[in-house]
Recover the amino acids of this structure.
């Protein structure tokens, strides 16, 4: 590793801005040892470690020496693209041994040639304004090598017809498709099969893990080891893919696709039209029962919503249960009508499978027969989603992944809590005997580059006066920093209230999440002098603003998960019922990791300097506050606003 990372190594000779980082070399050596010993490894590597190259180099060396494929799974598609467009080409150029790499995204990211051709003769557009957009997509499919919609940079992100022409698996007709050979998915899989290093994202990885070994086969080619970057996201993503879901969009598409089936029999067409109309009416009736509850976000589902026990002890359906049974019957009629024709056309066979899966998933969620699952409904925009997820994924991950794959590397800037990796080990089912933990030292000097401000006289965050006093503190801090700040909030309500109170009292440009796309908002912040951005969950991680433009991160409250969220409540209850203490074993470690993510937005380079402010007094007044403070980088702590001015003046002078 010294030959590669050392001051006179391969990378230093090829990269003019390369800096030797002790933590990077130690991390690379630890990963190389884990591969050699066939062990699992948890690596916490803070910003500035250079973790990407630290895991890529030993992964490439191992893949070439053992002639086995290694998968890199990232938290986001953006990180996938960075690896494939920046880091991988650089290493292919400078490393002495040649290696091949490819990347795979979820099928919904790719155009389906067959569906695009069919769409030319079907009504899939919302209006004449989309004619030019569809024509641009159609022409692009003849030019592109990948079919990845990311190439359509001049078209809106939210193309309403994309879902009607993409290559997602539930509508794919496989090898029976006339476009199977030139298909973008076929080509993507061929590149993946030939690769030494395969770059995927967590969603695709766990989609594969969920179906691997059953009748659906596999999504990814076989692999000998896997590296998870942004591994703190694994539990929630795995929980999604080991669960079940039915949405209003899914049923609408099922009906819409019924109209385009290649059926010429007039009697069957008439029966299908009746069945489709019945599904539309009964689905609307079913979903409106939930809409009457007037909830937003997630709402827990309990068995008594669908059935009750009568005086004779028999289960009887509630009005909602009756609506479900009627909808299930209509879907059953659709299957019965189409099933005899399934062999005549692959589109019919595909639609029968989709209808059967929808019935199975609906039954799973409404019957709630599996006790180790949590059930809920989620309203997202115009859509309604019935969902069920396993409460605890540790056994599933141990059985499907960690016991079967020789080496799994889990890395992120935030994996430990109070200096321990126990939380991650237990939540993910990692065997202590086969798993070691390692913290790569950062190349940043947080004591020199940053200061933590904990104001003196803040009330409990649950008190009615907290928001007003928090706004006052933010105004004082912004006066010192002259804007240049993120205000990271733990809820939309808090974000909007603080934005309204603060923006009217300062002369700095104030942006708020939700006013435009995340990418657009970040670009506006970077380009606007003295800007202040009020944001919530998605800006706590994966956001990089280097330099003076972001010189302050203000956090309103310790980021405990909402206790009434169905998944959070179910996980907490599961721990308590098994003799644990969920607040200390789940709530605190999870909040610590989230807080570290938020704080990680500030220092992104060796020249960055600035202020962290946490307005929640519980970090000082509660016993568990010590766990939060022990988990943060070692830096100076103050409760005097005057100290911030000294630091900010120093930072400005350095810049």
């Amino acid at each position: 590793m010294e030959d590669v990372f050392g001051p006179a190594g391969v990378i230093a000779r090829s990269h003019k801005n390369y800096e030797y980082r002790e933590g990077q070399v130690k991390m690379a050596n630890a990963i190389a040892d884990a591969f050699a010993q066939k062990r699992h490894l948890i690596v916490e590597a803070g910003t500035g470690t250079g973790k990407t190259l630290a895991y890529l180099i030993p992964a490439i060396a191992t893949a070439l020496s053992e002639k086995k494929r290694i998968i890199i799974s990232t938290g986001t598609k953006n990180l996938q693209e960075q690896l494939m467009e920046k880091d991988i080409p650089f290493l292919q150029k400078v490393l002495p041994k040649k290696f091949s790499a490819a990347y795979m995204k979820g099928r919904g990211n790719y155009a389906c040639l067959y569906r695009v051709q069919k769409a030319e003769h079907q009504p899939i557009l919302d209006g004449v304004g989309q004619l030019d957009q569809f024509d641009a997509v159609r022409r692009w499919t003849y030019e592109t090598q990948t079919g990845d919609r990311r190439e359509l940079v001049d078209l809106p992100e939210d193309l309403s017809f994309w879902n009607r022409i993409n290559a997602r698996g539930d509508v794919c007709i496989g090898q029976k498709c006339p476009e199977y050979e030139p298909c973008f998915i076929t080509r993507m899989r061929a590149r993946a099969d030939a690769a030494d290093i395969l770059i995927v994202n967590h969603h695709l990885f766990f989609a594969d893990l969920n179906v691997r070994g059953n009748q659906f086969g596999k999504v990814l080619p076989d692999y000998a080891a896997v590296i998870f970057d942004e591994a703190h996201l694994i539990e929630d993503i795995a929980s999604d893919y080991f669960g079940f879901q039915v949405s209003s969009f899914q049923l609408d598409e099922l009906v819409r696709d019924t109209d385009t089936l290649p059926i010429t029999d007039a009697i069957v067409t008439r029966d299908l039209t009746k069945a489709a109309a019945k599904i539309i009416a009964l689905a609307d009736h079913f979903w409106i029962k939930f809409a009457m509850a007037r909830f937003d976000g997630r709402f827990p589902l309990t068995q008594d919503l669908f059935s009750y026990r009568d005086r004779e002890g028999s289960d009887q359906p509630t009005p909602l249960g009756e609506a479900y049974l009627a909808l299930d019957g209509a879907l059953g009629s659709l299957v019965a009508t189409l099933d005899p024709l399934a062999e005549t056309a692959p589109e019919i066979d595909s639609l029968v499978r989709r209808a059967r899966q929808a019935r199975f998933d609906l039954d799973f969620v409404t019957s709630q027969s599996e006790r180790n699952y949590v059930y809920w409904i989620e309203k997202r925009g115009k859509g309604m989603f019935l969902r069920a997820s396993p409460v605890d994924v540790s056994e599933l991950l141990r059985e499907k992944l960690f016991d079967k794959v020789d080496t799994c590397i889990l890395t992120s800037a935030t994996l430990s809590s109070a200096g321990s990796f126990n939380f991650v080990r237990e939540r993910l089912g990692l065997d202590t005997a086969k798993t070691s933990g390692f913290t790569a030292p950062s190349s940043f000097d947080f004591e020199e580059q940053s200061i933590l401000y904990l104001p003196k006289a803040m009330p409990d965050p649950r008190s009615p006066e907290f928001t007003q006093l928090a706004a006052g503190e933010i105004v004082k801090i912004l006066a010192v920093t002259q804007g240049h700040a993120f205000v990271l909030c733990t809820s939309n309500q808090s974000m909007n209230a603080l934005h309204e109170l603060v923006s009217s009292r300062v002369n700095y440009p104030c942006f708020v999440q939700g006013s435009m796309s995340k990418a657009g908002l970040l670009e506006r912040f970077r380009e606007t002098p003295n800007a202040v951005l009020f944001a919530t969950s998605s800006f706590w991680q994966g956001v990089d603003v280097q330099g003076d433009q972001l010189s302050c991160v203000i956090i309103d409250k310790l980021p405990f998960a909402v206790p009434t969220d169905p998944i959070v409540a179910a996980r907490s209850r599961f721990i308590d019922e098994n003799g644990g203490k969920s607040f200390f074993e789940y709530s605190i470690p999870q909040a610590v990791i989230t807080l570290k993510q938020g704080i990680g937005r500030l220092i992104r380079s060796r020249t960055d300097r600035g202020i962290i402010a946490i307005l929640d007094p519980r970090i000082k007044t509660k016993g568990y506050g010590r766990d939060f403070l022990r988990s943060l980088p070692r830096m100076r702590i103050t409760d005097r606003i005057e100290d911030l001015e000294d630091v900010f003046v120093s930072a400005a002078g350095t810049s």
